[in-house]
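Checklist before submission:
- one chain only
- standard amino acids only
- sequence pasted in full

Submission:
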Amino acid sequence: MPIARRPLIAGALAALPLPALAQDGPFPSRPIRMIVNFPPGGTTDIAGRIYAERLQQRIGQPVPVENRGGATGNIGSEAVARAAPDGYTVLTTAVSPAAINYALFGARMPYRPEDLAAIGLYLRVPNVIMVHPSQPIRTIQDLVDAAKARPGALNYGSAGSGGSPHMSMEMFKLRAGGLQITHVPFRGAGPMLIEAVAGRLETSVDNLPSCIGHIRDGRLRPLAVTGHVRSAVLPEVPTLAETVVPGFEATAWFGMQAPARTPRPIIERLGAELDAISKEPGVRARLADLGADPPNLTPDGGTSPAAFEAFIRDEIAKWAEVVRASGATID
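Returned file contents:
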């Protein structure tokens, strides 16, 4: 090839679109796969499916949901961190795999914060401490008294080690005077709630959206919520802060991430869609009915990639201190 022609050909090649973009056309031109990093039935799954339903209606492409649980959300998160950074694989995640696990797993973490890009926050929810109605424990003070009277004799179930319910309960035990209540982790909220409703757990703790149906139907008795204010859907249930642990607050949250090298225009497009969905009256009504609060990361009550990224950084630092102070470990 004559040397003089090489710059011309090189310039022409550089002007061509990337192969993926050339094949796919403008984003999005095919289905976007949403991986949920916890099993079906829990709040992560509920939140992801609410947003997946509206996202596919807005963008005109299917958004199939794939549950890939395990290792407190790490398995699904790692799968997305290693996926092609083209916008066609996204992650519905929660506070544990997005923030808590970095301190809890330490060197065993299969990915780092910089491996995932923030897109937007879906919602925030309190956790609820509950007992089976057959239990003589009727208030959170009763639970504290019972735990102090029989150290190590009581147990509590959660959706898994390192999740927000687990860490909220460990924080409560620490700040309520070092209570000794044995943790029984499950592989997701669904299996845990089956055992709680059957009366085979003395105490349980879970995100409000996934257990609210059992509470409303009288299958579980709520003792306290972990948020800084009472829940609008459970106004009669006190907070830990107003009862046995002044100043206590621990909430769960859920949002969307993507592989880190996903092009910024795609991140911004998806972030704008999530922001619009979070402000829809119908979506807000569904969230409120579950006892969840909207994202409220931006001045107008919505979300954005930049705001969610900053939020995650703060949460990683916050929960690292909780893990350190409580001595929590992976069971």
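Reviewer check: Residues 1-22 have pLDDT under 50 and may be disordered.
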